[in-house]
Amino acid sequence: MSASGDISTQEEYIGHHLHHLQLDLRTLELVHPHSITSFWVLNIDSIFFSILLGMIFLKIFDNIAKNATNGVPGKMQTFVELVISFIDSNVRDIFHGKSKLIAPLSLTIFVWVFLMNLMDLFPIDYLPYISQHLLGLSELRVVPSADVNITMSMAVGVFILILYYSIKTKGIKGLIKELTLQPFNHPFFIPINLILEGVSLLSKPVSLGLRLFGNIYAGELIFILITSLLPWWSQWILHVPWAIFHILIITLQAFIFMVLTIVYLAMASEEH
């Protein structure tokens, strides 16, 4: 679809790039772009690219681990060691408990989210064009972290770990006391404490998922707007500086998601 033309064409272009490739689980058929979706509809493009990028991450790090040398390391091994050292330093500074899960989890979150964000730097028409002409797919979005379903799914996973560490450290009774006797340590204020602490607890996964989604979705939308509003020969004037700035955004958002995860799990592991 051409990015030039009247307003209606531009609206169709933007809408086309904001619609997912969806599968209806009830009929196992692709969903029409303008049909009403339901709970049983999956964004299979987001799921596919999330799994693909996760496999790429595991494959790269597995190869580096198997071929690691004690001598002069290669460029890739040096880069991986720097990433691991950076994450390990942050984990040690924030999480003071003992857990074999936190460091690998933090590494996975940072690299995986970074790779998902990095897909935003692909030319927005490139992969959709290939999928349409080779596979006959009319819709395709390649940035998983611009899909709120993906970011909230990861946030829910973190939330489950928060509950797990809270119960593991304090016990069920301790968790209930934490929710009912803070910040006002008096039985009369239990309903108020429960509301305040419940909102505070539930806001953690919501803010975690929506922050990542909002920033990456906004970045993707700006790329689409530049492409739709400018002629093809002049798009680089805005694309290049925004892409350079966006490198900072995608890295920062992956780091923030990782750090907040460590902070929340560290808070859940503290004994009050």
Question: What is the fold's blueprint, element by element?
Answer:
Elements: H1 7-17, E1 22-24, E2 29-30, E3 41-43, H2 44-66, H3 75-94, H4 102-118, H5 126-135, H6 148-180, H7 190-229, H8 236-268
Antiparallel strand pairs: 1-2, 1-3
Description of the structure:
The protein has 272 residues and is mainly α. It is 69% helix and 3% strand. It is built from 8 helices and 3 strands, in the order H-E-E-E-H-H-H-H-H-H-H. The chain has helices spanning 7-17, 44-66, 75-94, 102-118, 126-135, 148-180, 190-229, 236-268; strands at residues 22-24, 29-30, 41-43. Strands 2-1-3 form a 3-stranded antiparallel beta sheet. A hairpin with a 4-residue loop joins strand 1 (22-24) and strand 2. Helix 6 runs antiparallel to helix 7, helix 6 (148-180) packs parallel to helix 8 (236-268) and helix 7 runs antiparallel to helix 8. The protein is globular, with a radius of gyration of 22 Å. The termini are far apart. The model is unreliable at 1-7 (pLDDT under 50).
If you average the pLDDT, what whole number results? 88
Going across the biggest sheet, name each strand in turn: 2-1-3
Provide a count of the helices: 8
Which class do the helix and strand fractions yield? mainly alpha
Largest sheet, described in full?
3 strands, antiparallel
Bulk shape? globular
Q: Please count the beta strands (DSSP E, at least 2 residues each).
A: 3
